[in-house]
Specification:
Layout (H helix, E strand, L loop, with lengths): L1 E6 L14 H9 L9 E4 L3 E3 L5 H8 L8 E3 L29 E5 L1 H9 L10 E5 L6 E3 L2 E7 L9 E7 L2 E6 L7 H6 L5 E7 L14 H13 L3 E10 L9 H8 L4 E3 L5 E3 L1
Parallel strand pairs: 3-4, 4-5, 5-6, 10-11, 11-12, 12-13
Antiparallel strand pairs: 1-2, 1-14, 2-3, 7-8, 8-9, 9-10
This protein binds zinc ion (3 copies).
């Protein structure tokens, strides 16, 4: 499966919308891979994980054809991952299609609530279908077999990370989350992941709860290997960075790649 990272920042973007800190100033000066928008990715041009407020910009930047996307998996309801107002742009007279297939949106209760507030299925003229999905209950979406797993992210919301099987490959999409809850560790024992994408919001700094930093990412990698949930040839990727981590893209590559990690940047594509 081919994964394309559309946005690789935490909620504020990097440089942050209003921020004048050193890390944001440096990112503005250097540009290129240091400019990070809000988080989402697209798989094989047909499946999307999360739908950020920067999606319109991603479409322009990467010449995406979103009309091809039929399945959208939402991790949680935070605005940087889910901007449901733009989903309503899929109906007439905002969009015209050759096919009548709806876009299937999958998420938890909180995601459903925000989806409905923005108009939901009702106002979408049949162009959107929402599916409430539950932790550890596998569902089929097109050719993909998808399982929501519990994250440790926002108190009061059951946030998901996802295990996705597609075309013979298995991917763990692991953010936003802190160190995984034990229920998730228990459940994923049956997998042997080909690709693992991990939350590295805090960059080189320590963070165990709600988001991770690199020291925790390393612990997760080691446990995945020890429990044979990942292999030596599994591709490990760190993603979802905040300016508070401080390191520029090249500095993160220098710091994390010796430990066998690929550091994402906006627009990066990787074959899992
Ligand atoms: Zn986030
Ligand atoms: Zn900043
Ligand atoms: Zn979040």
């Amino acid at each position: 499966m081919r994964v394309k990272f559309l946005g690789t920042a935490a909620a504020e973007g990097w440089p942050g919308l209003f921020c004048q800190c050193d890390a944001c100033r440096k990112a503005r000066e250097l540009g290129g891979k240091n400019i990070r928008t809000r988080s989402s990715c697209i798989i094989d041009d047909l499946y999307m994980i999360d739908f950020s407020a920067d999606t319109y910009y991603h479409v322009l930047r990467d010449h995406l054809d979103l009309s091809r996307v039929k399945h959208l998996f939402i991790t949680h309801s935070h605005e940087d991952h889910f901007y449901p107002q733009d989903l309503q742009m899929r109906k007439k007279p905002f969009a015209y299609f050759t096919s009548n297939d709806p876009l299937h949106v999958y998420g938890n209760d909180h995601v459903k609530e925000r989806f409905d507030q923005a108009g939901g299925e009702e106002k979408s003229d049949g162009t959107l279908r929402f599916h409430k999905v539950n932790p550890f209950e596998t569902f089929i979406a097109g050719d993909a077999e998808v399982t929501p797993l519990l994250a440790d992210h926002a108190p009061g919301e059951q946030c998901y990370i996802y295990a996705i099987k597609l075309n013979g490959k298995t991917l763990l999409y692991g953010h936003d989350t802190g160190y995984f809850p034990e229920q998730t560790w228990e459940y994923i024992k049956k997998y042997s992941f080909d690709g693992v994408i991990l939350d590295c919001t805090s960059g080189p700094q320590e963070s165990m709860r709600y988001h991770m930093g690199f020291p925790t990412v390393l612990k997760v990698k080691q446990r995945l290997l020890d429990e044979k949930i990942a292999r030596e040839n599994t591709i490990f990727i760190v993603n979802h960075f905040s300016h508070n981590g401080g390191l520029m893209h090249d500095e993160m590559v220098e710091a994390f790649s010796p430990y066998g990690f690929v550091v994402t940047y906006d627009g990066m594509e990787i074959e899992i």
